[in-house]
């Protein structure tokens, strides 16, 4: 019983770890996700998030894009599981900062048609 | 020595409160200004629409005519007064509800994790908290119900006695001091209600923070009042005094320009700053308390709980 719980716990931890860590590569087989990768701005943001974790304001400072637009792209990337919230930090001015990171360093597209 | 350090810390906290809030206002001024302008326009539209409806009622009802509303107001005094009060109240709810959505914008900046605010999120805060915002503003603004200039009849303003003018000035100053006291006591309720959603709990949190950090609240809101509210008090009192003394009309007009400028200062900088300052104080004290008692992990959990409650 204890062992089961332990295994379950370990499984959960591994799952959580996978959820919160950048993987080497991810295979994309969902055709809906492909246009997002090739979207000019979403792709650009994703590329930046592959290199390092960033907040929306970091992205804004680097690209000069409107934070509202960035937020919408980020929401879309989150929805399609291409990025994740890697960290939440409260800075010295008591402002909560959310850091985003790409799910993988490399995205491989593998689509068969017809499925 | 300890007292000196304490004073320095509070002074520094107030300085940081203003510095951070002003930086955030500069970076997000579009969202705040848009919310204020929308609130004003929505107020005017609501007032005009309701007034049109009221006029229509007066036209349709055979016993009444529109002139009853404007000319024969004395004959229908009670009904007219009731309708006008109702219209004003409904319009006021729209105005205050929307103006206080600035607390939602401040919440987006300080607590959402994204560090910026968008005008459109004001609508979701209005939908969620409008009645709480209106009630809390009513409680905070009770001192405004002290009659001041209403003591002076516009026609008789030049023939006012010195006792009356002293009374008006005293009441104005009393109103000013009381509104500062009410702000110190209840300022945290608005960011609290935005963060955790409960009306009654916002009072608990507000009183708890006031009990633990009275100096910080007194200093920050003291400085706020000196910067944003004092100019209006000074210029309006000067205008009243000059009018009563019958001094040069040009000087009075200049004073009136300063009164208008003071109002604009309050509306376009003072109000967003109030929302940002209150939210910043709330955040820093809540986080500091959590840090002191429970540590980093719990701090995140509390934030998540707050977010869930808010959603």
What does this structure look like?
Chain B: Keywords: Membrane, Transmembrane, Transmembrane helix. Chain B: The chain crosses the membrane at residues 37-61, 82-110, 130-147, 221-244, 250-271. The complex is a heterodimer of chains A (115) and B (311). Chain A has helices at 2-19, 34-38, 40-51, 56-63, 67-79, and strands at residues 23-28, 83-90, 96-102, 104-109. Chain A is an alpha+beta fold. Chain A has a single domain (25-108), classed as Orthogonal Bundle (Arc Repressor Mutant, subunit A). In chain A, the strands form 2 sheets. Chain A has a two-stranded parallel sheet. In chain A, a hairpin with a 5-residue loop joins strand 2 and strand 3 (96-102). The longest helix of chain A has 18 residues, at 2-19. With 311 residues, chain B is mostly helical. Chain B has helices spanning 2-27, 29-60, 66-70, 77-99, 101-111, 121-140, 162-186, 189-196, 199-212, 214-245, 249-293, 296-310. In chain B, helix 4 (77-99) packs across helix 6 and helix 8 crosses helix 9 (199-212). The longest helix of chain B is centred in the last third of the chain and has 45 residues, at 249-293. The N and C termini of chain B lie far apart (46 Å). Chain A binds chain B through residues 55-57, 60, 67-68, 71, 85, 88, 90, 93-98, and chain B through 16, 20, 109-116, 118, 280, 283-284, 287-288, 299-300, 303.
Give keywords.
heterodimer, A: 115 residues, alpha+beta, Arc Repressor Mutant, subunit A, two-stranded parallel ribbon, two-stranded antiparallel sheet, 5 helices, 4 strands, B: 311 residues, mainly alpha, 0% strand, disordered N terminus
SSE inventory with pairings:
The complex is a heterodimer of chains A (115) and B (311).
Chain A: H1 2-19, E1 23-28, H2 34-38, H3 40-51, H4 56-63, H5 67-79, E2 83-90, E3 96-102, E4 104-109
Parallel strand pairs in A: 1-4
Antiparallel strand pairs in A: 2-3
Helix pairs in contact in A: 3-5, 4-5
Chain B: H1 2-27, H2 29-60, H3 66-70, H4 77-99, H5 101-111, H6 121-140, H7 162-186, H8 189-196, H9 199-212, H10 214-245, H11 249-293, H12 296-310
Helix pairs in contact in B: 1-10, 1-11, 2-4, 4-6, 5-6, 5-8, 5-11, 6-8, 7-10, 8-9, 10-11
